[in-house]
Design brief:
Blueprint lengths: L1 H22 E4 L3 E7 L2 E2 L8 E4 L5 E7 L3 E4 L3 E4 L5 E12 L2 H7 L3 H21 L3 H5 L27 H15 L5 E13 L1 H71 L3 H19 L13 H8 L2
Antiparallel strand pairs: 1-4, 2-3, 2-5, 6-8, 7-8, 8-9
Helix pairs in contact: 3-5
């Protein structure tokens, strides 16, 4: 009898434990729950953590994430307003803000991802198609670069940006949230992960970049040649000035030296009469030595200088 009571107690305890386990559920900090009865939601969503109760076997719990969720779009080829195709790869962050509405419209996160794909891909195509390729690629206008030679600015032929990449991202996010109002979700952030040109556009862009660089290089080269010509011209002028000044200085020094030499000769000649006579005598003797020999005959007049010295020697 005691064994039967023990077995019945165990069975009763197991039944009570099973009923308790099926009538309770635990909600974590990162979860929110929608309770359904025969497939229809009942009551308000459970958004606070802790142990919760439900009617066993009749009510079912549906758990949804309360945290920020990731959406990663597939790269797509999208046409721009100026009829150029680009590859656009996007990503976003979203959150379930109304779990009850989310359950009614989406049922689960897989269905939500599929719906977000449709919304964001569609809005991305729509806004890319409304703007030229420069608007999708760039976020701001660029400041022209200085030539670095004579301080002038090199004109930049890049198109002026009025909207830009960042603004397009914001507009796509706003438009997507307008479509997601009745889905119980919110797009928290949307970004272009990568934008790349298709091969044809890449070639055009590279050629344009090369052309722009060549144009700037030619301007640098032209400015350099002009500056070189100015430097060479200035060098030639300075060289001619230096040569002219040197020649002038040399002539002045030479003239001054000649004047001093003449003065020295004059002073030496005019110093005394005896000196002049001695000098004349020596020069005459030198002349005789070089002019006459034992076979020479000359005829001199009586007023000749040489005759005067010959006569005085007798």
């Amino acid at each position: 009898m005691d064994n039967k009571k023990f077995i019945l107690a165990i069975i009763a305890g197991a039944v009570l434990l099973f009923i308790f386990s099926t009538s309770t559920y635990i909600v974590n900090e990162s979860e929110q729950v929608v309770v359904t009865q025969f497939g229809k939601p009942v009551g308000e969503p459970v958004v606070t953590p802790g142990i919760k109760f439900k009617i066993p076997f009749i009510q079912t719990t549906h758990f949804f994430d309360k945290r920020y969720l990731e959406w990663d779009g597939d790269p797509n080829q999208v046409p721009t307003k100026d009829k150029k195709f680009i590859f656009v790869d996007t990503y976003a962050r979203w959150q379930i803000t109304d779990p009850l509405q989310f359950f009614k419209r989406m049922t689960n996160e897989r269905g939500a991802i599929s719906r977000i794909d449709d919304i964001l891909d569609g809005e991305t195509r729509n806004y890319i198609a409304k703007h030229n390729i420069e608007e999708a690629v760039r976020s701001s206008n660029r400041t022209p670069a200085s030539s670095g030679i004579i301080g002038e600015l090199v004109g930049d032929s890049l198109t002026t940006i009025y909207v830009g990449r960042d603004k397009i991202q914001e507009m796509i996010q706003v438009a997507a949230n307008e479509q997601a109002l009745d889905l119980g979700i919110e797009i928290l952030d949307f970004r272009f992960k990568r934008i790349n040109y298709v091969e044809e556009v890449q070639t055009q862009v590279y050629e344009r970049m090369k052309s722009e660089r060549y144009r700037i290089a030619d301007k640098f080269k032209s400015e350099g040649q002009g500056e070189a010509s100015n430097i060479n011209g200035e060098k030639e002028r300075e060289l001619l000035t230096i040569v002219s000044e040197a020649y002038k200085t040399a002539e002045e020094i030479k003239g001054d030296a000649d004047g001093k030499a003449a003065a020295i000769y004059s002073q030496a000649y005019d110093k005394t009469a005896s000196s002049r006579q001695l000098y004349s005598f020596l020069k005459s003797m030198e002349t005789y030595e070089k002019t006459f020999d034992g076979q020479t005959h000359i005829i001199l007049s009586t007023d000749n200088e040489l005759y005067k010295y010959l006569k005085s020697m007798k």
